[in-house]
TrEMBL record:
GO molecular function, one term: oxidoreductase activity
Organism: Paeniglutamicibacter gangotriensis Lz1y
Similarity remark: Belongs to the short-chain dehydrogenases/reductases (SDR) family.
The UniProt record lists the keyword Hydrolase: no
Family matches, as InterPro entries: NAD(P)-bd_dom_sf, SDR_fam
Pfam families for the chain: adh_short_C2
SUPFAM superfamilies with a match to the protein in the record: NAD(P)-binding Rossmann-fold domains
Keywords attached to this entry: Oxidoreductase
Gene3D superfamilies in the record: NAD(P)-binding Rossmann-like Domain
Protein name stated in the entry: Short chain dehydrogenase
Length: 260
């Protein structure tokens, strides 16, 4: 398939995990890519992985702190300067933050998680949608979480931010559908990414793989999801194949969120 030929897609959080998987999938389908991440080494690794599969891929890598609105505005401007337009946006950058009971959750830590996971998504929407509305077309996928459609223990900042992402997604979709723009969210569950691995190591650094086994035991599919499985869903939602899907929040969690 070449669903993204002559199309430009921005991916934030492209330096690892879900962002990298989506970038590889879209590059294989001939999309131009603006890769955004705070970690330059991660961006380089993603670009290398893409070029091993698609040597002539068009890639713009942009080191960005998505919690800083001026830097978000800059990555949007640089993408338009390089490619002339923005056809799709995987608004994905995020962190988990430290784990603790709500009463013990540090205020600074809470603010940090919300700044990146919610404010960063808002800034991305704010500046990308301006371009898409002028074009009269575009597709956005925000990364929420199953923690954004139900609670997740010991992660107050993360759950609050991801619930906020769900609200932003639905609200923006209502506003911008009339301009030919679709805005949806994915709600990943237990996907084996560096962030999830880090979460398991917070619980038990020495036996984190064992913790992981118990973590997926309630899942009807009894396994972690793969980043590539999420990347394929994101590519579908950003493509013309998903032309009438709007304001949806789609769990990709093996059915765990429906079991309880």
């Amino acid at each position: 398939m070449q669903r993204f030929e002559d199309k430009t897609i921005i991916i934030s959080g492209a330096g690892s995990g879900l962002g990298r998987a989506a970038a590889i999938q879209i590059a294989k389908e001939k999309g131009n890519l603006a890769l955004v991440d705070l970690n330059p080494a991660g961006l380089k690794e993603t670009e290398t992985a893409i070029r091993e599969l698609v040597p002539n891929a068009e890639i713009l890598s942009l080191r960005t702190n998505v919690a800083n609105e001026s830097e978000v505005e800059e990555y949007v401007a640089e993408t338009v300067k390089r490619f002339g337009r923005i056809d799709g946006f995987f608004n994905n950058a995020g962190i988990e933050g430290k784990q603790n009971l709500t009463e013990d959750f540090g205020s600074d830590e809470f603010s940090k998680v919300v700044d990146i996971n919610l404010n960063g998504v808002f800034y991305g929407l704010k500046h990308v949608l301006k371009i898409m509305r002028a074009q009269g077309s575009g597709a956005v996928v925000n990364t929420a979480s199953v923690g954004g459609i139900r609670g997740v223990g010991n992660q107050s900042g993360y759950a609050a931010a991801k619930h906020g992402v769900v609200g932003l997604t639905r609200n923006s979709a209502i506003e911008y559908g009339q301009y030919g723009i679709q805005i949806n969210a994915i709600a990943p569950g237990a996907i084996m990414t560096p962030m999830v691995e880090g979460s398991l190591k917070q619980i038990d650094p020495q036996n984190w793989e064992k913790v992981g086994e118990s973590f997926v035991e309630p899942n009807p599919m009894k396994r972690f999801g793969k980043p590539e499985e999420v990347g394929q869903l994101v590519a579908f939602l950003l493509s013309g194949d998903a032309g009438f899907i709007n304001a949806a929040v789609i769990p990709i969690d093996g059915g765990q969120s429906y079991k309880y």
